[in-house]
Amino acid sequence: MKRNHFYKKLTALVLGGLLTASAGTAMAASTVQLNLGDAVQMALENNRSIKSALADVDVAKWNLSKYRRQTGVTLGLTSAYNRANDTAAQSHVDNKYFTNSASASIPLYNFSLRSGIEAAGYGLNAADVTLENTKQSVRYSATEGYYNVLNYKNLIKVQEDSVKAYQEHLDNVNAQYRVGTVAKSDVLSSQVNLANAQQSLTTAQNNYDIAVATLNNIVGLPTDTVLQIDDQLKHDSYNLDLNDCTNYALNNRADGAAAYYAVKQAEAGINTAKAGWYPTVTASGSKAIEGKNAFGNDTNTWVFGATASWNIFDNGVTTAGVNSAEASLVKAQETLHQKDETIQLDVRTAFLNLQAAEKNIKTTEVAVEQAREDLKIANVRYGAGVGTNLDVMDATEKMTAAQTNYYTALYKYNVSKAALDKAMGIPVDINVAKYKTSQMEGNRVRKVREDAKVTENPVLELSQAAKTASKEEAKAGRQAERAVAAKAGKEKQAVKQEKAAETKTAPAAQEQPASTGTVASEMAN
What we know:
Elements: H1 2-22, E1 31-33, H2 36-46, H3 48-69, E2 74-84, E3 95-110, H4 111-178, H5 184-219, E4 226-228, H6 242-252, H7 254-273, E5 280-291, E6 299-309, H8 317-384, H9 389-424, H10 432-440, H11 445-452, H12 464-505, H13 516-524
Parallel strand pairs: 1-4
Antiparallel strand pairs: 2-3, 3-5, 5-6
Helix pairs in contact: 1-2, 2-4, 3-4, 4-5, 4-7, 4-9, 6-8, 7-8, 8-9, 10-11
């Protein structure tokens, strides 16, 4: 709980500082120190996909509540005023009376309602595990984004070393050219290679800036935030077995569990469709009073009873509904099987990528050492006049490529491990396997969540603050729309008034009488 509070406070302070900084036009973007744990936690708290999934959980929870509440007692009140005149009896005496009644009813047997509760319960289970799957996806995105920043940070260092090597070699070539020991072509080719290296450095720096902006977006910070990350990509060894990883994934993948609950919902849908073959029984009671006054009780009636309704023949409507629901079940089952196959493929792919990256780390480590030694030899040979400029250029290029390959392999290794964790369904807030077990034991959702949680205070539902913020946002939106409409109305009214004023004040065009000279001139012509 304290750790979550720290991250919320950190995010609030960062955002508050950035908003304050935005008030000054000349102030630089804020700097935030970040590590992998911070990045993941901030992403879990701020990511909008998670907030959307939390809203889906709330929808499913209240949908289940709606079905459950239909099994309870419902109460109703009715009041009526009637006035009659017996015209047939030539009577003009008004017969006015008031009727007030109260009724209560409760379903005793309703197969459709019972099936609806079952389906809604599975819907809430599916929403819970979908939320967990969303959190795992966000964790992977934050981890990948964090490693991406580290990777481009390393690649900048590689390109800086490359620029430095080309610059030192160019200085050496110029020195030898001035004393006439090398040709002009060596100088030109060295300058070209230096320019190419500088361009590669610019590209690496741009890629780093984009990676930082992307990570900021994932964790919920403004994209121009400067991140200070004092970390390095590591090569930790993992003793993993493919079969163990696959079996764990089949039992723990949250999207696999969501597909399972979709099958259970489809099974409940068949029972809902079969409801037309069963009767419904409802118990009810009512009391009615009638009199000349509003609440008079000249007549007092009590009624208690039960009502049974059974549709004996519906021309095959129920049968058609059952067949449709059974087809939906087949579809859900095939989706579940396909999901299991996808899970196995995801695990195998991530596992093989992890193995390949680890092998590449080992080979590229050796290649870097060999390339570094080769560059030293090429520089010494060129300085002694027994090597060529091309030898140095080639050795420098190979050194840059070897270092790039090493850091790329290190990056892929770390990302592949994160991808394997995602493919296996390593939990964020709830253990999916324990969740399913507890649910199968017939426990209520609260108990199921308690049995499955892996953190002290998992966020599994929308907070009251989030609901309040949503209402305030909707209210502000409506107010803004009304303000725009009111402004448009005022502008239209002003235009109408302006046109009306122009019409009233414009002088009527009057024809000027022609002079005598003008008339005589026209007649002469």
